[in-house]
Amino acid sequence: MYSARDRVEHAAWLERIEEAAAVIDVGQDARSAATDLFLSHIPEEERSKRAVAAASLYAGALIAGEERSQQAVADAMDVSRLSVQSRWKPLLEDAGFEPPTW
């Protein structure tokens, strides 16, 4: 779980998620899920935050039923597709969701 302080301290990352969500055209449910996932899994290392934010957005879109490609999310967040691919399943599992098996 995260605190209100986390939301304030990481406001720039939350704004980046919002901007990327607009680029890939996902709704408020996906954005909210992505925000919750990111704030619940903020990495220690600054360089990892972009990848976790991207994976959170991808997973949030899945949760909301607004599936987007990993490449589209990666492009919107300016990370590699591999960054999204390697992180989204653990985020979902840790949040109590069962990732799709396609």
Brief overview, please?
This protein has 102 residues and is mostly helical.
How does this structure look, described?
The chain is mainly α. It has a single domain (4-93), classed as Cyclin A, domain 1 (Orthogonal Bundle), CATH 1.10.472.10. 71% of the residues lie in helices and 0% in strands. It contains six helices and no strands. Helix 2 (11-23) packs across helix 4 (46-63), helix 4 crosses helix 5 and helix 5 packs across helix 6. It starts with a helix and ends in an 8-residue tail after the last helix. 34% of the residues are buried.
Stated plainly, the CATH topology is called Cyclin A, domain 1
SSE string, helices as H and strands as E: HHHHHH
Percent in helix = over 70%
- Number of E-state strands: 0
CATH top level class name: Mainly Alpha
Structural class determined from secondary elements = mainly alpha
Number of helices: 6
Strand content: under 5%
The number of domains: 1
Stretches where pLDDT is under 50 for at least 5 consecutive residues are: none
Keywords, please?
102 residues; mainly alpha; Cyclin A, domain 1; 6 helices; globular
